[in-house]
């Protein structure tokens, strides 16, 4: 591939006939040379290729002795006393039914009741496969074929495995790939949930800059080409390519193609963490996933591990306690945490992850898989498409309202790009310089002042691996009621103005900081935590009594 | 079976234990006027006691930076654009109902329909934490009080729910063991933990067991002859009721002796007890280690207990819970916050709405029923064994759980005077369409064994007799071949090819 790609956005809408779209897009694009593969390429990397990636842990993890015996016990006519499974007739559950809404926007208010018992319930209640209920897994293979044009067959050496949420699968993937001292590339700012995992595995983290279009290629290239000799080359890049948490950015096709090209050149894997894939609401057709691209561009196939989540589209349950005001009873049912995610990637790596599962979580919970499968199977792929279209439109409306509130109040006080997917806006407050950051530091402003004004967002420092000072703020527009958008932005703007005024009066903004030195290497993370502790002391002096006694049924003073 | 009615510690008290500079010591003297018995509060080991037990890994875990800020968003009146939560109105689930049986045997055929709604559930789900939904956790703490006489207040322990007890066990091992650390495991041992010890590169020292549980003498011998080049063991892993694979339940006497040794040698007891509620012995059940450490004078905080719903509610539901010293449970929760985040609140809500509907008395009726089912299966299975395997095998009749562990009386093979059940099972029995697990799977070193583990939980009862008949025929064959004077050659012929 040539290195000077200057293509317009080229994309394939998942909802349309994709063959047609590709042909059209490719023929209209100067990219045609690079991106025209209609016949998926069959340059599949062999299993042995992954030996260099698998960690010592992955290689040591013995398979549980039981699955072999379990498969033997399915021989017809076999009288098996080998299974340690309990007697299913002692289980108290006899049937389960869920009421679910129609998938499409027009009929959303209607609902259907799905009942299940029999085989599916029995399978759900008793043990099943490490990687998920077979029927459910098959449905998900079909989903990957529909949205990423990856077929699961003998030629394609990839597998799919269901886990107890994406974080569970990510953590297992990291364990299977990283030895102490190995290196990883992470986009910054980065989803902070993965940082403790890298620290735990004692890895070297190399940051790659991102902007509103995703990973900045020049920076990735620079990092790779100037890689220090004494550090091992990175095993993978961790990236959130749609509606990135925290930046809200979605990587353009051009960037994706260049990242993939570099992955092939430098032999690193791409860990594509894509929980906001179905929350794309951009004006132009969506770019394909890395998982799709690696199959459809010339070059080897097998560098991409894709992580999908149901948390944003079916149920979250991760942090129910965040809701303020609290959700209604119906909404509580809705958010009951399913904790289901799935990984699609090279079979040797997925198999190693399954071995870890067999000694830890054993399998994802059967009931939640069965309920999810019952719903998805009832809707079918077309119904699922209607459902995610509906969700994307809800977020699109929220985004529009939130951005206009930002425009009303923060123009001149902050800078931002408008997200095209997901639920986050990442904006830079225009602050007076602070120690360690010419652009100022949003942390004190958010943690101390904004909190006092009863508005809460997340300071940018949380999203850097070294916890450096940042003028950025992450705001999420998903759960704050829309009628409060304006007031929230108004309060934030007032705080920013105040700080700017003080900065102008040269009251040394730095002097308000509790943490003065942020530049000593190795100190950053600890200092961040100190700040968090500071933050906790604030909770204790300020609203503790209220927290302890608060009932969520109370009407919020602002609601 | 009914919960232990409070073990009378006055009459059966073993040597009381006193503190000496914080180090627990076994003494032979009784409490005296100068040394009055310590209160429970005074006996609880301090949090820093566990510093030496926690692994480097556990100490490296950092709490997720976001998770720590969550409480801020609960401030009433705050306008939070902080939470990265999806909009709940976009989710499709509106209601969940389930049909469940009555808990007691007499009314088992009747069903009740429960709906996941109502104020109880609303309250229950208001907060969901790493260690489980607080209401559910409270219910489980009540269960521990009822069955083990333990309260979380003032006793230094915490309860945390995980994605099955294997998940919690694996996190506990991660939190406790560094490379090169030592553990004591009963042998034979639940095979599911062997890969974990291998993975963590631990030294596993085997302790012999028999039908009454761990052989205390062997445990003492192992401890007294501990090799100088190995680190002292941090913990003992044991399944004290209806052990997988042996079916053995540890007697009170053995439990007391093991606890005494744990206190003397300062190792933790990891009590993996999924078959606790499947006790169907004729005599009242012995108390758990978790209960005993409180009832027997001495320090409290050596026991980490693992409970499971897999055998009594549903194995596919994947819910288990750990009860143990708070610093250890906190470390387990930190592992969770970087991996599974929390057990599925869906599964928890289903379990909680059933359990709170039944109440503790209903739960008791349910587990009585379940134990009754296993007892009947055990009786039928043991009768089939007697009919066919008398003289061909030796076994002890289990009083809990779902396993019988029996020694096939086989001709010797190289490496084992008692013969090797693996070839018999893997090659011959398979051909005769009868399958059990060879004993070798249950030893950390995979040594040759004449034992076999049979499970009587899922094989239909009407096939018990035929299964034993087929197995007996094979054992007879093997013995006959050996008797034909091929002697030890037999071993060569049948050894793994």
Automatic annotation (TrEMBL), chain A:
A Gene Ontology biological process term: alpha-amino acid metabolic process
Family annotation (InterPro entries): Aminotransferase_I/II_large, Class-I_PLP-dep_aminotransf, PyrdxlP-dep_Trfase, PyrdxlP-dep_Trfase_major
GO terms of molecular function: pyridoxal phosphate binding; transaminase activity
Keywords associated with the record: Aminotransferase, Membrane, Pyridoxal phosphate, Transferase, Transmembrane, Transmembrane helix
Pfam families registered for this protein in UniProt: Aminotran_1_2
Cofactor(s) demanded: pyridoxal 5'-phosphate
Residue stretches spanning the membrane: 532-549
Keyword flag Membrane: yes
Signal peptide bounds: none
Boundaries of every Aminotransferase class I/classII large domain copy: 150-314, 335-492
Record family assignment: Belongs to the class-I pyridoxal-phosphate-dependent aminotransferase family.
Name used for this protein in its record: Aminotransferase class I/classII large domain-containing protein
From TrEMBL, chain B:
Top-level taxon of the source organism: Eukaryota
InterPro entries: Aminotransferase_I/II_large, Class-I_PLP-dep_aminotransf, PyrdxlP-dep_Trfase, PyrdxlP-dep_Trfase_major
Presence of the UniProt keyword Transferase in the record: yes
Any single biological process term in GO: alpha-amino acid metabolic process
GO molecular function per UniProt: pyridoxal phosphate binding; transaminase activity
Pfam families, per database record: Aminotran_1_2 (PF00155)
CDD domains, alphabetized: AAT_like (cd00609)
Cofactor names: pyridoxal 5'-phosphate
GTP-binding keyword on record: no
Annotated ranges, domain Aminotransferase class I/classII large: 127-471
Keywords: Aminotransferase, Pyridoxal phosphate, Transferase
PANTHER family: AMINOTRANSFERASE, KYNURENINE_ALPHA-AMINOADIPATE AMINOTRANSFERASE, MITOCHONDRIAL
Similarity comment: Belongs to the class-I pyridoxal-phosphate-dependent aminotransferase family.
Name of the protein described by the UniProt record: Aminotransferase class I/classII large domain-containing protein
Organism: Tulasnella calospora MUT 4182
């Amino acid at each position: 591939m040539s290195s000077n790609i200057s293509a317009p956005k080229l994309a394939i809408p998942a909802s349309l006939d994709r063959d047609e779209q590709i042909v059209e897009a490719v023929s209209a694009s100067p990219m045609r040379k690079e991106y025209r593969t209609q016949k998926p390429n069959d340059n599949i990397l062999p299993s042995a290729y992954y030996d260099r990636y698998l960690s010592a842990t992955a290689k040591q993890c013995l398979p549980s002795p039981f699955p072999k015996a379990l498969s033997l016990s399915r021989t017809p006519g076999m009288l098996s006393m080998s299974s340690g499974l309990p007697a299913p007739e002692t289980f108290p559950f006899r049937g389960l039914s869920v009421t679910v809404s129609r998938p499409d926007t027009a009929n959303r208010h209607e609902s259907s009741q799905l009942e299940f018992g029999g085989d599916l319930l029995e399978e759900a209640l008793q043990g099943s496969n490490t990687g998920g209920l077979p029927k459910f897994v098959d449905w998900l293979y079909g989903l990957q074929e529909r949205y990423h044009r990856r077929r699961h067959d003998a030629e394609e050496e990839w597998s799919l495995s269901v886990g107890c949420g994406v974080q569970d699968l990510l953590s297992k993937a990291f364990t299977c790939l990283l030895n102490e001292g190995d290196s990883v590339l992470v986009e910054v700012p980065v989803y902070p949930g993965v940082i403790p995992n890298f620290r735990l595995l004692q890895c070297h983290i190399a940051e790659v800059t991102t902007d509103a279009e995703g990973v900045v290629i020049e920076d990735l290239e620079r990092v790779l080409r100037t890689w220090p000799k004494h550090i091992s080359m990175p095993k993978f890049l961790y990236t959130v390519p749609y509606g990135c948490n925290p930046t809200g950015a979605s990587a353009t096709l051009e960037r994706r193609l260049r990242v993939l090209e570099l992955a092939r050149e430098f032999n690193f894997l791409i860990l594509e963490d894509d929980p906001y894939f179905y929350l794309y609401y951009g004006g132009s057709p969506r770019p394909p996933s890395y998982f799709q691209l690696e199959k459809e561009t010339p070059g080897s196939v097998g560098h991409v591990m894709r992580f999908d989540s149901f948390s944003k589209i079916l149920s979250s349950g991760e942090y129910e306690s965040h809701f303020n005001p609290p959700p209604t009873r119906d909404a509580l049912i809705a958010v009951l945490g399913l904790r289901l995610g799935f990984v699609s990637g090279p079979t040797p790596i997925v198999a190693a992850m399954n071995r870890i599962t067999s000694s830890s979580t054993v399998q994802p919970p059967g009931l939640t898989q069965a309920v999810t499968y019952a719903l998805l199977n009832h809707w079918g792929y077309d119904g699922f498409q209607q459902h995610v279209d509906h969700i994307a439109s809800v977020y699109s409306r929220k985004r529009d309202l939130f951005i206009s509130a930002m425009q009303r109040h923060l123009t001149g006080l902050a800078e931002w790009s408008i997200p095209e997917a997901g639920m986050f806006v990442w904006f830079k407050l225009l602050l007076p310089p602070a120690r360690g950051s010419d652009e100022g530091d949003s942390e004190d402003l958010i943690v101390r002042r904004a909190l006092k004004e009863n508005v809460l967002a997340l300071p940018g420092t949380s999203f850097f691996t070294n916890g450096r000072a940042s003028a950025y703020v992450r705001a999420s527009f998903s759960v704050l009621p829309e009628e409060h958008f304006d007031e929230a932005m108004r309060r934030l703007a007032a705080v920013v103005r105040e700080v700017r005024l003080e900065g102008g009066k040269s009251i040394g903004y730095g002097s308000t900081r509790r943490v003065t030195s942020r530049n000593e290497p190795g100190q950053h993370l600890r200092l961040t935590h100190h700040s968090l502790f500071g933050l906790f002391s604030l909770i204790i002096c300020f609203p503790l009594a209220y927290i302890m006694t608060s009932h969520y049924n109370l009407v919020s003073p602002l609601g | 079976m009914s919960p232990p009615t409070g073990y009378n510690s006055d009459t059966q008290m073993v040597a009381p234990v006193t503190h000496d500079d914080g180090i627990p010591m076994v003494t032979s003297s009784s409490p005296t006027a100068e040394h009055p018995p310590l209160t429970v509060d005074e006996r609880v080991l301090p949090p820093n006691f566990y510093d030496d037990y926690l692994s480097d890994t556990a100490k490296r875990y950092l709490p997720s930076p976001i998770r720590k800020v969550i409480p801020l968003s609960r401030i009433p009146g705050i306008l939070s654009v902080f939470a990265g939560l999806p909009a709940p109105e976009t989710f499709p689930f509106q209601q969940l109902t389930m049909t469940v049986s009555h808990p007691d045997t007499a009314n088992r055929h009747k069903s009740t329909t429960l709906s996941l709604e109502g104020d109880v559930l609303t309250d229950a789900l208001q907060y969901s934490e790493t260690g489980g939904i607080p209401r559910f956790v409270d219910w489980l703490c009540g269960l521990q009080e009822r069955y083990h006489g333990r309260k979380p207040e003032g006793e230094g322990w915490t309860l945390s729910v995980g994605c099955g007890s294997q998940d919690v066990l694996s996190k506990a091992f991660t939190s406790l063991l560094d490379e090169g650390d030592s553990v004591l495991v009963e042998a034979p041992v639940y095979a599911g933990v062997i890969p974990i010890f291998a993975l963590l590169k631990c030294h596993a020292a085997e302790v012999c067991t028999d039908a009454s549980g761990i052989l205390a003498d062997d445990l003492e011998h192992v401890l007294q002859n501990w090799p100088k080049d190995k680190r002292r063991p941090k913990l003992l892993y044991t399944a004290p009721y209806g052990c997988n694979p042996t079916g053995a339940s540890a007697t009170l006497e053995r439990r007391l002796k093991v606890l005494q040794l744990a206190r003397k040698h300062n190792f933790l007891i990891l009590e993996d007890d999924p078959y606790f509620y499947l006790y169907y012995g004729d005599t009242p059940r012995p108390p758990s280690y978790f209960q005993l450490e409180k009832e027997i004078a001495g320090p409290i905080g050596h026991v980490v207990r693992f409970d499971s719903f897999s055998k009594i509610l549903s194995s596919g539901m994947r819910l288990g819970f750990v009860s143990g010293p708070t610093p250890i449970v906190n470390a387990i929760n930190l592992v969770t916050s970087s991996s599974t985040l929390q057990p599925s609140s869906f599964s928890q809500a289903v379990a909680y709405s059933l359990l709170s509907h039944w109440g503790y008395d209903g739960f008791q009726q349910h587990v009585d029923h379940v134990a009754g089912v296993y007892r009947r299966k055990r009786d039928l299975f043991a009768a089939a064994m007697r009919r066919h395997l008398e003289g061909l095998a030796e076994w002890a009749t289990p009083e809990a759980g779902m396993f019988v562990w029996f020694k096939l009386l086989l001709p010797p093979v190289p490496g084992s005077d008692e013969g090797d059940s693996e070839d018999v099972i893997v090659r011959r029995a398979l051909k005769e369409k009868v399958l059990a697990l060879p004993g070798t799977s249950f030893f950390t070193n995979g040594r040759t064994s004449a034992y076999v583990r049979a499970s009587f939980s899922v094989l239909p009862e009407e096939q018990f007799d035929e299964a034993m008949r087929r197995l007996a025929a094979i054992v007879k064959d093997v013995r006959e071949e050996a008797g034909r004077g091929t002697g030890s050659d037999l071993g060569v012929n049948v050894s793994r090819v």
